[in-house]
Each structure stands twice: as structure tokens, then as C-alpha cells.
Amino acid sequence: MTADARPAATPLTERQEARRRRILHASALLAGRGGFEAVQMREVAEAAEVALGTLYRYFPSKIHLLVATMQDQLQHLHATLRKRPPAGDDASQRAAETLMRAFRALQRRPHLADAMVRALTFADRSVSPEVDAVSRLTTAIILDATGLEHPTPEQLSAVRVIEHTWHSALISWLSGRASIAQVGIDIETACRLIDLTAGPERA
Is residue 136 within 8 Å of 74, Cβ to Cβ? Predict the structure, then answer.
């Protein structure tokens, strides 16, 4: 049974979950210090105090690990955003504010952000469950910000475009091709799609 299939089939025990959290913490710590290249599986295992074989049972590769690390970081961010929801007047403003807060959180740890984004870019089909989890979480963060409890197909399509824009803007900033100001403009522009697709079913 693969690491991708195992969690869905058999939920982790409390001890296994604690071990997984140590692994993710070690991954984020190493990536935050030195980026993608600094995350070496043997060093992660040592920092998390697990055997190397155990690490590979949880995460078959560095790409799996770093994409899971991004999911973990987004989960923490989602919890924070729920405690302090955006205060914009309309759905598009709230979505833009939320994504810029997410961007600023990543901006504070650029090496970690670069490592996670590179992992997403390098991910092949074997990492699909982890990539899909990141995408679903990003969608949930955007929808929570908008307040759309029952989004229409058009609104869900707009959210996907916003998600793609945010990811692309993050890559452009990390590569030095876009300023923070430009990122903000691009995200605000994409988020206006929410209002353009609003209809009678809007929450």
C-alpha cells in the first residue's frame, strides 16, 4: 500500500499523527533556512527523530513531503483567517484581502515559499493526491473569504481562475519578475471575477 492510499484507508493513530507533524515541522524548518535544496530526506529524518525508512513510508519523495508541507502551512493559515476574517465590503474585496494576507505570510519566509512552490511545479502524477489537497484547501480559503455558501458553477470557475492567478503571481514574485505591488494588482483584478459572476444564488 502506498503512502498516498494509506491515510484514506486507515486513519493515523495519535502516535503516528504526532510523528507526521514532527516530519512536517522539520521539513518547514529546513526549507525556511535554505530553500528547496536544503530539504534532504536524511536530514529531515534526523531533525524529526524518525528512521529514514519511516520517513519514506509517510512521504515517498521530497516532492511529496514539500507539497504536504504546503498543505500543512495553508491549514494553519486557514485557521488564522477564520479567527480574523477579512472585512471587505464585497466578496471580491474579501477574497483579495485574504489572498494578500496569505501572500504576506509566505513573503515572511521566502525560502520556504520557494521550496513549496518548486515542489508543486515539479510534482508529477504520483503526487496528485497531495496537489489536489492543496488546491481544495486554497479553494476553501477563497470561498470562506467570499462568504459564498452555495457557489454557482460560474463562481467556482472564477475561484479556480483566482487560484491559478495567485499561484502564478507567487511564482513571478519569487523569481523576481513581479513586485509586491504588481502581485496585489493582479490578485485584485482576478478577484473581481467573483462579483462579475454573482447572481441570485449568491450568499
Answer: no
Q: How far is it, in rounded angstroms, from Cα 47 to Cα 97?
A: 35
- Residue 132 vs residues 34, 47, 146, 175, 179: alpha-carbon distances, Å: 26, 27, 21, 24, 28
Place of cell 465590503: 89
Which candidate, 162, 72, 171, places its Cα nearest to that of 121?
A: 171
Per-residue confidence in pLDDT tens, the chain, 203 aa: 444 444 444 788 999 999 999 999 999 999 999 999 999 999 999 999 999 999 999 999 999 999 999 999 999 999 998 888 888 788 899 999 999 999 998 899 999 999 999 999 999 999 999 999 999 999 999 999 988 888 889 999 999 999 999 999 999 999 999 999 999 999 999 999 988 886 544 44
**Cβ neighbours of 30 (radius 10 Å):** 23
Distance (Å, whole) CA 127 – CA 104: 26
DSSP state of 52: H
- Kindly report the pTM of this predicted structure: 0.86
d(C-alpha 96, C-alpha 103), whole Å: 10
* Dihedral in degrees, nearest 10, Cα atoms 115, 119, 122, 124: 170
